[in-house]
C-alpha cells in the first residue's frame, strides 16, 4: 500500500511537469501551427467566454472579502496558464491550446489536458458554436476506468446535524453522496461519499484552530464508501444525518462527475468561516448546475444555508431521507416501550450485571424480550460510542452476553422502532434542518427604560440561533450565537453599543433514561453598563463567562441551571480587571408551535482580588412569536438593580 | 496569514469551548481513559485502518498515521478521486491488484468499518448492514439473502468468538464455504481470500 502511495506522489510531480510543458507550448509554438486551436481561441475571445459565469464557476473563481477575484484552488496543477487562478481569460486560452496538443508528445497519455479537465472540455464544446473543430482524438484510460467503476445514477447532499459537544463542529457539516441506481438489491450504505477534508499537521488544539482558521491546512476531496461517513457521524459522534436527493439530468450528472475528477487531486486551503466543507460543496454544485442560482447569501458559509440554497430551487431536491444517530435510535426504541419495560432497561443498564440482566429478561415473552435486549444494546452502543471496530469497555460482558442471547432467539418481524425502520422520508418538516430560518438576523425595535426613558434598538447577528427563538430546524436546547451587535439610541440622542456577542453557546439538553449530558455555556463579548454615571454613557464591560450545570425537560417545559465563573474588564465603578462567580438559571416554555416564553435569572459578582467591586443581578423574560419561517416578534422585559426596561422588536432572518 | 487577530481569539474560544463541551456526556471520560488500557477479546487492541475526517475544526483531528491508510483504502478500492493515484496505480506493477485481491480488500475494509453494526444485525437476523455485507460477498441471488441472514444469526457465536475484524471476516467466509445451502453461491467468496 505504501509503495502505491509513493508511486502516486511521483505521478503528482509528473503532473507539475505537464503544467510547465503545456504552458511553454502555449506561449511558443502551439498557436500559429494549429488552425483548430487558433480558431477556437479567437472565437472564445469574440464571445468573451472568459467572462462567462459558467467558465468562472468551473475555475472556482470567487470574489474575496477585499474585492479581489481569484480561484479558491491554490494548486498550480489545476491551471495550465501561469496565473490562471487570477486570470480566467489566460487560463481559457491555455486550456484551448492544451486540448489541441498532440498526445504523443506527452510521456503519459493520461496527462493530456483533455483527460485532466473533462468538465472544461465539456462546457467549451457546448459554448463554442460548432464545438471544438478538428480536436485531436485522445485516449484517457484512467478517466475511463474511473467512470466505469463509479457508476452513479444520481447524487445527494448530506447534512450532519449540529454537534453540541464540540464547539468546532456546532454549525453542522455537509458532503455529497453519489448514489447508484436503485434496484432490488440497492443499499445506500454502499454508495460513495465525497467530502472536503482538511489534513492538519498538528494535534495541539490551539495550533490547529489557529491554522484551521487561517488556511494553513491543505484541504482535499476525499471519496469513501458512504458507510464510513455513517459510522463516523451516526455512531462515533451520534449525529443525525439528513440526505437530500438531487434530481439531476444526465448532462448535469456528467458535469458533476467531470468536476469531481478535475478537482480530485488538487489542494483547496481550508478556512473555517468561508472556505469550509459547505462552501466547497456549494461551489461544486454551482459549477455542475449553472442553470440554478446557487450563489452564497453571505460572505460566511454555514451548512444549513447551503441546504436552503438547494431546497429553494424548484424541482432540484427530491426525497429527503433521515438516518438517525445512535442516540436517536436508542431514544425512539426506549419511548416505544411501556413504563415497566423502560424500568427494566434502566435497571439492566444501571446494574451492568450479566446475572441480574438474565433474571430481569425472564419476565418477558420472546418478542418483548427481544425489544428490551435491542433497546439495552442500543443504549450500550450509544454510551460506548461503538463505531467501526471499537471495543466496548464498561459494558463489554453485558453486551457480549446480550448479543449471544439475542442470536439464540428465533427471528422476529422487524421492529417498528429499529434503526432501519426509523430511517425514512416521512419526518415532519419541523425537524428538517432546511426548515430553520436563514443564518443572519436583523432586528429593530423600541422600548422604555425606567431610568433613561424611551429608546430604539437595532440588532444584527450573522449566526445562528438563541434559546428564545423558535426551534424550527434546530435541536431544542442548543443556542449558538456569533458576532451579535446591538446598538441603542435614546430619545435624547445618546447612542451606545448596548451589547456585543463575539461568540456564545448554550447547551441545555434533555435528560432521558441513561442520557444525562451536562448543560453548559460559554459567552465572550461586551455590554453597556446600566449603572453608568457618565454623561456620555461610555461605561462598558467586556467579559468571558463559562459554566456547567444541569438541565431537564418535562413536556414543553425545559429548565436549566449553570454554575460558572466570569472574568473581564469593566469601566465601572472604576476601570479594573475583575473575576467572579456567574450563575444562570432559566425556564423555556414552548407555549405553542410558534410561540415561546423564556425567563432567565442571572446572579453575578465582580471581584478585584478579594475586594468586591459590584454585584449585577438580572431577570429577563422574553416572549417570542415566530410570525413566519423568516421573521419573528420579540417582547422582552428586564429587571435589574438600577431599574427595569421593556423592548418590542421585529426580527427578520435573511 | 488571513485575519490573524481573529484567529488567535477564536483559538482561545475553541480551546475553552472544547474544555467545557467535550466529554460533557456523563461517563464518557471514564470510558476514554479505560479504552487506553483495554484489550480485545484475544488480547489485541485493534485500531481501524481509517481516520475520521470531516468538516469543522473538531474533525481536523486526523493523525498523520491514519491519513495515509485512509487514502490507501480508497485507492485500493479503485475509487480514488485522485487522478495522480489513479494514473500510477492503474496498470503499474506495485499497484495492480488482481480481482480477487481487490475483493478481499473491499471485504476487509467493510468489516473494519462496520464490525459493531454488522454484529447487531447478525444477532437479529436482519438489517441494512447485513444486507450490505451480503452484497459485498456476492450473496445476492434469489433467496440467498434469507439463507445468508439465517446462517449469520445461527453462526454468530462461532464467527464472533473474537472481535478482531480480520479474524471475524475469515471465520465468516469459512462458515459460508462450509454451508450446505450457500457454498459456492456467494460469487465474491474466493478460496484463500
Brief overview:
Chain A is an alpha+beta fold and 654 residues long. Chain A contains 19 helices and 22 strands.
Oligomeric nature of the chains: heterodimer
The number of E-state strands of chain A comes to 22
Structural class of chain B: mainly alpha
Give me the CATH superfamily of the largest domain in chain A: monomeric porin ompg
Q: Sheet with the most strands of chain B?
A: none
**Major β-sheet annotation of chain A:** 12 strands, antiparallel, barrel
Low-confidence stretches of chain A: 1-33
Strand content of chain B: under 5%
Mean pLDDT of chain B comes to 62
> In percent, how much strand structure appears in the residues of chain A?
25-35%
The structure class of chain A reads alpha+beta
Helix content of chain A: 25-40%
Cα Rg of chain A: 29 Å
Total strands of chain B: the figure is 0
CATH fold-type name of the largest domain in chain A: Porin
- Which residues of chain B form runs of ≥5 with pLDDT under 50? 13-19, 21-97
Radius of gyration of chain B: 21 Å
Q: State the shape of chain A.
A: globular
Main-sheet strand order of chain A equals 10-11-13-14-15-16-17-18-19-20-21-22
Q: Please, how many helices of chain B? A: 9
| CATH first level of the largest domain in chain A | Mainly Beta
How would you describe what is shown here?
With 654 residues, chain A is α+β, with helices and mostly antiparallel strands. Chain A folds into 4 domains: 2-134, no CATH class; 150-323, no CATH class; 326-422, no CATH class; 436-653, Porin. Chain A has 19 helices and 22 strands. A 12-stranded antiparallel β-barrel of chain A has the order 10-11-13-14-15-16-17-18-19-20-21-22. In chain A, helix 17 (366-383) runs antiparallel to helix 18. Chain A is globular, with a radius of gyration of 29 Å. The two termini of chain A are 49 Å apart. Residues 1-33 of chain A have low confidence and may be disordered. With 193 residues, chain B is mainly alpha-helical. Chain B folds into 2 domains: 47-96, no CATH class; 98-193, no CATH class. Chain B has 9 helices and no strands. Chain B has helices spanning 4-21, 28-36, 64-76, 83-89, 99-124, 128-137, 144-154, 156-159, 165-177. In chain B, helix 5 runs antiparallel to helix 6 (128-137) and helix 5 (99-124) packs across helix 9 (165-177). Chain B is globular, with a radius of gyration of 21 Å. Chain B starts with a helix and ends in a 16-residue tail after the last helix.
Amino acid at each position: 500500500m505504501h509503495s502505491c502511495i509513493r508511486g502516486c506522489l511521483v505521478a503528482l510531480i509528473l503532473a507539475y511537469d505537464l503544467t510547465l510543458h503545456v504552458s511553454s507550448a502555449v506561449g511558443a509554438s502551439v498557436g500559429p501551427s494549429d488552425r483548430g486551436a487558433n480558431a477556437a481561441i479567437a472565437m472564445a475571445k469574440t464571445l468573451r467566454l472568459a467572462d462567462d459565469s459558467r467558465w468562472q464557476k468551473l475555475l472556482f473563481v470567487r470574489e474575496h472579502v477585499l474585492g479581489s477575484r481569484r480561484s479558491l484552488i491554490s494548486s498550480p496543477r489545476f491551471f495550465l496558464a501561469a496565473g490562471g487562478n487570477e486570470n480566467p481569460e489566460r487560463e481559457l486560452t491555455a486550456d484551448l491550446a492544451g486540448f489541441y496538443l498532440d498526445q504523443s508528445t506527452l510521456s503519459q497519455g493520461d496527462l493530456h489536458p483533455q483527460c485532466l479537465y473533462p468538465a472544461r472540455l465539456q462546457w467549451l464544446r457546448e459554448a463554442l458554436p460548432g464545438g471544438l473543430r478538428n480536436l485531436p482524438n485522445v485516449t484517457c484510460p484512467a478517466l475511463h476506468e474511473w467512470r466505469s467503476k463509479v457508476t452513479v445514477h444520481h447524487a445527494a447532499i448530506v447534512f450532519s446535524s449540529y454537534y453540541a459537544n464540540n464547539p468546532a463542529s456546532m454549525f453542522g457539516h455537509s458532503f455529497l453522496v453519489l448514489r447508484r441506481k436503485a434496484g432490488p438489491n440497492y443499499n445506500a450504505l454502499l454508495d460513495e461519499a465525497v467530502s472536503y477534508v482538511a489534513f492538519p499537521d498538528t494535534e495541539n488544539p490551539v495550533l490547529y484552530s489557529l491554522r484551521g482558521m487561517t488556511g494553513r491546512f491543505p484541504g482535499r476531496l476525499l471519496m469513501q464508501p458512504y458507510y464510513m461517513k455513517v459510522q463516523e457521524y451516526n455512531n462515533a459522534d451520534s449525529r443525525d444525518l439528513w440526505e437530500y436527493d438531487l434530481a439531476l439530468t444526465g448532462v448535469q450528472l456528467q458535469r458533476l462527475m467531470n468536476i469531481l475528477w478535475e478537482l480530485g487531486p488538487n489542494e483547496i486551503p481550508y478556512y473555517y468561516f468561508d472556505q469550509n466543507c459547505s462552501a466547497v460543496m456549494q461551489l461544486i454544485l454551482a459549477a455542475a448546475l449553472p442553470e440554478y442560482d446557487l450563489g452564497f447569501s453571505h460572505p460566511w458559509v454555514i451548512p444549513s444555508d447551503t441546504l436552503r440554497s438547494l431546497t429553494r430551487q424548484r424541482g432540484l431536491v427530491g426525497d429527503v431521507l433521515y438516518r438517525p444517530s445512535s442516540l436517536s435510535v436508542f431514544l425512539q426504541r426506549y419511548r416505544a416501550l411501556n413504563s415497566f419495560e423502560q424500568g427494566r432497561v434502566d435497571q439492566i443498564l444501571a446494574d451492568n450485571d450479566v446475572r441480574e440482566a438474565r433474571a430481569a429478561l425472564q419476565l418477558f415473552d420472546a418478542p418483548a424480550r427481544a425489544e428490551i435486549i435491542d433497546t439495552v444494546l442500543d443504549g450500550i452502543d450509544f454510551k460506548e460510542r461503538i463505531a467501526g471496530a471499537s471495543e466496548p469497555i464498561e459494558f463489554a460482558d453485558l453486551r457480549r452476553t446480550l448479543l449471544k442471547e439475542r442470536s439464540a432467539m428465533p427471528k422476529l418481524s422487524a421492529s417498528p422502532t429499529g434503526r432501519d425502520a426509523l430511517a425514512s422520508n416521512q419526518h415532519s418538516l419541523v425537524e428538517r434542518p432546511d426548515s430553520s430560518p436563514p443564518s443572519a438576523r436583523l432586528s429593530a425595535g423600541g422600548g422604555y427604560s425606567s431610568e433613561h426613558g424611551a429608546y430604539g434598538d437595532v440588532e444584527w447577528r450573522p449566526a445562528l440561533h438563541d434559546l428564545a427563538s423558535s426551534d424550527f430546524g434546530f435541536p431544542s436546547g442548543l443556542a449558538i450565537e456569533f458576532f451579535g451587535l446591538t446598538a441603542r439610541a435614546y430619545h435624547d440622542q445618546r447612542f451606545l453599543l448596548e451589547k456585543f456577542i463575539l461568540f456564545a453557546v448554550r447547551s441545555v439538553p434533555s435528560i432521558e433514561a441513561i442520557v444525562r449530558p451536562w448543560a453548559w455555556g460559554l459567552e465572550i463579548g461586551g455590554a453597556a453598563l446600566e449603572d453608568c454615571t457618565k454623561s456620555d454613557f461610555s461605561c462598558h464591560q467586556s467579559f468571558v463567562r463559562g459554566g456547567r450545570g444541569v438541565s431537564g425537560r418535562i413536556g414543553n417545559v425545559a429548565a436549566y441551571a449553570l454554575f460558572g465563573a466570569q472574568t473581564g474588564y469593566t469601566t465601572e465603578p472604576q476601570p479594573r480587571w475583575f473575576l467572579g462567580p456567574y450563575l444562570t438559571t432559566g425556564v423555556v416554555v414552548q407555549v405553542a408551535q410558534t410561540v415561546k416564553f423564556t425567563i432567565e435569572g442571572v446572579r453575578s459578582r465582580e471581584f478585584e482580588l478579594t475586594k468586591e467591586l459590584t454585584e449585577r443581578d438580572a431577570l429577563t423574560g422574553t416572549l417570542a412569536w415566530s410570525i413566519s419561517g423568516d421573521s419573528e416578534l420579540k417582547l422582552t422585559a428586564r429587571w435589574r438593580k438600577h431599574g427595569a426596561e421593556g423592548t418590542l422588536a421585529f426580527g427578520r432572518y435573511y | 496569514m488571513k485575519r490573524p487577530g481573529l484567529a488567535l481569539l477564536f483559538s482561545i474560544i475553541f480551546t475553552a469551548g472544547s474544555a467545557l463541551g467535550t466529554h460533557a456526556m456523563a461517563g464518557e471520560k471514564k470510558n476514554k481513559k479505560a479504552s487506553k488500557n483495554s484489550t480485545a477479546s484475544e488480547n489485541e487492541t485493534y485500531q481501524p485502518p481509517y481516520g475520521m475526517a470531516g468538516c469543522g475544526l473538531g474533525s481536523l483531528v486526523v493523525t498523520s498515521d491514519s491519513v495515509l491508510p485512509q487514502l490507501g483504502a480508497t485507492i485500493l478500492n479503485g475509487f480514488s478521486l485522485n487522478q495522480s493515484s489513479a494514473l500510477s496505480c492503474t496498470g503499474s506493477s506495485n499497484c495492480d491488484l488482481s480481482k480477487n485481491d481487490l475483493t478481499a480488500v473491499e471485504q476487509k475494509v467493510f468489516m473494519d468499518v462496520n464490525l459493531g453494526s454488522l454484529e447487531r444485525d447478525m444477532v437479529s437476523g436482519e438489517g441494512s448492514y447485513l444486507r450490505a455485507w451480503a452484497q459485498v460477498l456476492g450473496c445476492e441471488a434469489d433467496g440467498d439473502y434469507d439463507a445468508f441472514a439465517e446462517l449469520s444469526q445461527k453462526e454468530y457465536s462461532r464467527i464472533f468468538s473474537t472481535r478482531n475484524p480480520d479474524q471475524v471476516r475469515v471465520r465468516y467466509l469459512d462458515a459460508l464455504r462450509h454451508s450446505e445451502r450457500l457454498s459456492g453461491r456467494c460469487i465474491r467468496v474466493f478460496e484463500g481470500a
